[in-house]
Amino acid sequence: xxxxxxxxxxxxxxxxxxxxxxxxxxxxxxxxxxxxxxxxxxxxxxxxxxxxxxxxxxxxxxxxxxxxxxxxxxxxxxxxxxxxxxxxxxxxxxxxxxxxxxxxxxxxxxxxxxxxxxxxxxxxxxxxxxxxxxxxxxxxxxxxxxxxxxxxxxxxxxxxxxxxxxxxxxxxxxxxxxxxxxxxxxxxxxxxxxxxxxxxxxxxxxxxxxxxxxxxxxxxxxxxxxxxxxxxxxx
Length: 235
What we know:
Pfam family, one: GntR
Shape: elongated
Strand content: 5-15%
Keywords: DNA-binding, Transcription, Transcription regulation
Radius of gyration: 19 Å
Protein name: GntR family transcriptional regulator
Distance between the termini: 38 Å
Helix content: 55-70%
Oligomer: single chain
Domain HTH gntR-type: 2-69
Order of helices and strands: HHHEEHHHHEHHE
Region (Disordered): 194-235
Strand order of the largest sheet: 1-2
């Protein structure tokens, strides 16, 4: 079975973000094909996509390498997110479906519950799902793609501290959902801008890894794509 290039792209991107491949390290088609159990054709296509996204760069005499973004480039990403997330929330207030609202409200309930229990790791995942769903609710494929790419790159470049008052953070999420549900685009925009601005302070720039870092065992790429599992969200 031919493994699609987007599956290989996702696997390589995930390994770059998680630090399996250090910044500046070479990415040879042969080694990547062996690691993921695929031919060189989808690897070549995946590297082209990752280069367009800024995760990979091509160097003369070296070929494809993991990009080495500057601190200014990293700071630009946070600024872009502060501009685009409020736009996404405003669009969501105008275009969301009842299904989007159901998932958003369920995530807020779970987030508030986990915040009361102090379950930080669950909150990190729930927060990611919340912002992904809010972006999906914007109904704008181009905006969704940009926000998804920003989330990946910010996760690659920054470590994010848990909020000191997680219950307040989830109360902000709840207020955003209320504005989206009412169709109040301007309030959804303003609340999301405030939330994004406060979140910037929790980001700490990751420093390049030291040589000799241990890497994860080679994975196999699945030919199927799995979306976010929201079956456990109580409605």
